[in-house]
Amino acid sequence: MKIRRTLALTTAAVALGGGLALAPAASAASSGAAAAQAMSCSTTKISDYRASGWCSGGSNWRVGIKCTDGQHYYSGISTIRGTKYVACGSGRMTHRWIDMW
């Protein structure tokens, strides 16, 4: 009899409080998953000397290029969604990328 009563109280507690207790945990998990998603980024060659890049934001990022003068050139750093541009100081562009940290 005591076992039956304990089981009934446990079932009622789970039905009432358990569902409510799980709701915040589920929303916390989903917001954590959203924060853990990777940023989307891409680069585009504008000319032999210039490139642009964009990211969806959420972390520090910048566009980088390497030119035939042997130098690396970078756009300004951003943390928000948007497009950045960078150009060679001299020479032609050979590589382009996005740095994220």
From TrEMBL:
<protein>
    <submittedName>
        <fullName>Uncharacterized protein</fullName>
    </submittedName>
</protein>
<keyword id="KW-0732">Signal</keyword>
<dbReference type="InterPro" id="IPR006311">
    <property type="entry name" value="TAT_signal"/>
</dbReference>
<feature type="signal peptide">
    <location>
        <begin position="1"/>
        <end position="28"/>
    </location>
</feature>
